[in-house]
Amino acid sequence: MQHCCVSLIFVSSLRMTSKINWDALGITTSILCAIHCAILPLVVASLPILGVNIVHNLFFEYGMIGLAFVIGSWALSHGFRKHHRQFTPWLLFTGGMLFLIAKQLWHHYEFRLLPFAVILIVAAHIQNYRLCRRGHNRAEPGCEQGHSANPVSPISGIE
Questions:
Q1: E strand or H helix at 14
Q2: pLDDT tens digits, residue range 119-155?
Q3: Fewer CB within 10 Å: C terminus or N terminus of the chain?
Q4: b/e for 109-126, b at 16 or more Cβ within 10 A?
Q5: What whole-number distance in Å separates Cα of residue 25 and Cα of residue 69?
Q6: What is the rounded end-to-end Cα distance, in angstroms, of the chain?
């Protein structure tokens, strides 16, 4: 059997055995964004001397916000459509995203706005996760949401 066929079989079997917990992935990306915004400027303060600008790089900042938006929207829409019909996670998430955008618009308030953004986005994912657990018995066949006992593991189907 050729190498590419073996790789294809391995990837196919991995997809069938693993489920992604989108809420845990959303929480992880939100926390990583907070770490980037709060700690990275302290760690890489010497990079501008070397000509590298990663601290307030608009492409990177908006990329992180876009990533949080895409993953969060996917997780919340999945939970809303297939497990519950609650708007609370969406309201929390929208508030968090508005704080993230405000952080970008008003840089001098960045460290005051960022904690509220992260807390609201993480709270939205936790609330969505809990509502999905409560509505798990109504899950549709073929549901991609990871349903394990471990709420913080982004890939919960591999054990």
A1: helix 3-17
A2: 999 999 999 989 988 876 555 544 544 444 444 444 4
A3: N
A4: ebeebbebbbbbbbbbbb
A5: 12
A6: 28
